[in-house]
Amino acid sequence: MLLGADPKTQELHAPKSMSLIPLMAQTQKNSAFCLDSWKVSFSLSFLKGIALTWFEPDLLNAISGTEPAWANNYSKFIIELMMNFSPHDPVSNAEHQLDNLSMKDGS
User: Fold this and answer.
1) b or e along 51-79 (b: 16 or more beta carbons within 10 Å of the residue's beta carbon)?
2) Distances (CA, A) of 82 to 19, 55, 85, 90, 102
């Protein structure tokens, strides 16, 4: 997500469109997020599609004291996101994208 961009237009739903760096930077530098659980809640608010579907069962079925480990630990939340939604081989993915670059039609 680009800082200052309209959050309604941003989607974190697939490895191709997901970039965690801006989201992580926003939560790390903002003093409003002093608790990890707040950082997790803020980050969850941007999820859509398959990423939201992945976390929904834990969110909807959470009973006090039985929350998943990532619910109150931002580092674990980011690890969970990256394990499930980042490219499995980022180097090959980048090479493939570079090999298939093309100019868009100007019309």
Assistant:
1) bbeebeeeeeeeeeeebbebbebbeebbe
2) 10, 13, 5, 11, 28
First-to-last C-alpha distance (Å) of the chain: 27
**Alpha-carbon distances of 15 from 10, 43, 51, rounded to whole Å:** 14, 16, 10
Count CA within 13 A, CB hemisphere, residue 78. Answer: 14
Residue found by looking up tokens 């009973």 in the block: 63
Q: Which amino acid appears at position 19 of this protein?
A: S
- What are 65-100's pLDDT values in tens digits? 678 889 889 999 989 988 888 877 888 888 888 998
- Is the full-model pTM beyond 0.70? no
| Cα–Cα distance measured from residue 35 to residue 32, given in angstroms and rounded to the nearest whole number | 9
